[in-house]
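ligand=zinc ion
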Amino acid sequence: MKSIAFVNGTVVLPDRVLDDGMVCCEGSKIVSVGQRESLPSDVEIIDAKGGVIAPGFIDLHVHGGAGADFMDGTPEAVISACTAHLRHGTTTIFPTTTTGSSQQISDMIKSCAVAAQQLSKQPAKAARIAGVHLYGPYFAEDKVGCHAPDGRRSPIVSEFQKYFDRGLVRIATCAAELPGADVFYNMARQHNCLITCGHSNSTWNEMQAAFDAGMRHVDHFWCAMSSVPSIRQRCHVPMQGSMAEFVLMSIDMSTEVIADGWHLAPELLEFAFRMKGAERLCLVTDCNRALDMPNGEYRFGNAADGTIFRSDGNVGWAPNGSLASSIVGMDSMVRHMQRSTSASLSQVIRMASLTPAERTGIADQTGSLDVGKLADILVMDRELNVVDVCLGGQRVSA
Ligand SMILES: [Zn+2]
Ligand SMILES: [Zn+2]
């Protein structure tokens, strides 16, 4: 079995770093993590050159990249986007649906299944698909954001049962205030999904009911979610708690931030980190198809009928001047979080690896540099630019 040793770098563990550490893998798995020691001559050495040796990133919320949106509904689009994200350090990915017709969402899930099957025969080509994030279409009407409003609706059991029955949905979003949300959450729970509430204007009481049905996560904190003032508009007085208070008060709730520097100012990233901690806060890209593409106009969602946005090379903009999700990979999020908050390197990397793995139930396979886990390993320079990626023990060709 082929052995690889990563040496001469700072090894990032979930709770500490090892200076001048070493990580060895054999076949697809990690077999040792510790201080550097002498190695047999037949081991392939990857020299981190004084940089960082970290676990591969895991992205819970991502729409596309390299010109492709997962909602395009073809295996080629799925593979293009997953290939682009792997170059940015994402080794495990949850392709994410948006609003659209039932046919478009079915096609998206099917294309992910076909792509995952094809990728299993082409190791180290693209980020590993760990499941689909069923995100749209069950958004609240007043919190649709940049998603196509025609493709939004309340959950319909005959519709979402088809999605769950394919066995690929691992993360399931529904706005808690929609009629039928409880039935949706129950089915998501039966399918062992991370259950999340997003694009929602729900009240504290609606969140509590959702929590009782198994909801444990809220999508992109502060974006397209309720606040005390928004609930006051909806329900008048007395003022009521919103999604924000519910997430901040409950130890069992996790959330995520889009740390691209355009969605949230540094103090909000710091606030989310301090309130929730690295074990309950995930970094997500929420990246659209404009990743690694020239500035210009693109469609968010399906290539034929998605909403138009403009990429200026920093972020996506909707025609009305609001944000239309990010255009950068997880490596950018990690660098920005490191620059902008008091989180340690271990904590920043944890938010992009072990925490999302734990929340989705895959932490026994990946998410940290631990013996027995898949050798999903990144080498980064000191500025946290990705220089080498290893997926399941296979080096990714540049
Ligand atoms: Zn969103
Ligand atoms: Zn999104």
